Known about the structure:
Strand order of the largest sheet: 1-2-3
Oligomer: single chain
Number of strands: 6
Radius of gyration: 31 Å
Shape: elongated
Strand content: 5-15%
CATH class of the largest domain: Mainly Alpha
Structural class: mainly alpha
CATH topology of the largest domain: Tetracycline Repressor, domain 2
Number of helices: 23
Distance between the termini: 70 Å
Number of domains: 3
Order of helices and strands: HHHHHHHHHHHEHEEHEHEEHHHHHHHHH
Helix content: 55-70%
CATH superfamily of the largest domain: SLC41 divalent cation transporters, integral membrane domain
Amino acid sequence: MVNTLYLPELREMLAENDSAELREFCTALHAARTAEFMEGLTPTEAWEVLKHADRETRAEIFGYFDRDKQVEIIETGDRTEMGQLIANLPNDDRVDVLNHVEPEIVVELLPFVPEIDRRDILRLSSYAEGTAGAVMTTALAKIGEERTVREALEEIGRQAEQLETIYYVYVVDNDDHLRGLVSARQLVSAMGKPHTKIKDLMERDLVTVRVDDDQEKVAQDVARFDLHAIPVVDEEHRLIGIITHDDVIDVMREEASEDVYRMAAVQPLVENYLETALHSIWWKRSIWLSWLFLAEMLTLSVMVRFESSIKEIVALTFFVPLCIATGGMSGTQAATLITRAMALGHVALSDWWRVILHELAVGVALGVTLGAMGFVGALLTPDSDSLGGANPYMFALVISQAVMAICVWGTMVGSMLPLAFARFGIDPAYASSPFVATFVDVTGILILFTLAQVYLF
């Protein structure tokens, strides 16, 4: 509602080419708010507004536009202007947006980007998607370990305009091997001793990530050690970039979204939900749903196998939904807990035996609780033809034991599947509610009717 109030005024300023007002509009508020007020403008109109801001402000506001608007502006804009815009964007952000631009347009744009920025773009673009190299920035503060505090402050002052963050200043040797770091706070605190060598101040025990490490591991390390930024090194421990906390937030949001999709057996959506084509949503949802449907049809085969038992004791079918729901819910709980624990780094593949023991104990406790409830529920089944002349207490015992066994089984399956998936390089989130429930449904029916065969026939 608030945004629309500005649109007529903005369009009037554009129509009158009121440079002074447009320039003030671009600088009066935080860049994020300015971009928000421009949401209703077309990409062409938005760029016409941005042309009245200085280069740095223009790039900052542009960074808060949604990705589709950014891409359209770059693809339709003047190549020289777009080259200047790209050069002023943060190193990692410009690579992200260019990954969504048509490749032939990127080829046309690169000659208009300054050579040093062009080399940086090509270098960052070479790293695989989802790795530390793909999300890092090369705009960082670094100095030699033989520098003094005074020299370091002077050098950082010269570098400041090109830096994304100055939380940490990284200390390197002549070949860019990472030796340590000093925080901005340490440097300011040492201003009273300007001749102190940086090597006497720096921290040497650093948390680093390799350029080919998975971005999810990077996010875990930053969260675990409460870092503002984390250095990225190559196989020879040379410093090649950093990943800042704002990029880590984006990674965590992306990973969390993917996990939510996969736990619902849906292929992750890239676009906005309402803007995603119907056929795309159909395809992403139908892939897993079709496999799960075919797997669920195995319950039909199990039921057919025990057809004679069902005819004799119809009451068994009354408890089929109860038993499979018990297995599905217990398995889903376990799968969710283990998947989350793995994402947070609380559980590793080597902990599988501890997980088994833990979940076995929990599964038995839950099984006894639900089995007792199932015994009472089965005992209340009306003594009629549906029991086929079976002893009510024996029937209740069958249901009770089936519920307990299925609960334990569901818990074990749910806890082991994420670990098994991870062992074979599959995202543990795929051990999702539908997947676990489908697997336990089939085996749960088999457990119920097998116990019935043993006790009642």
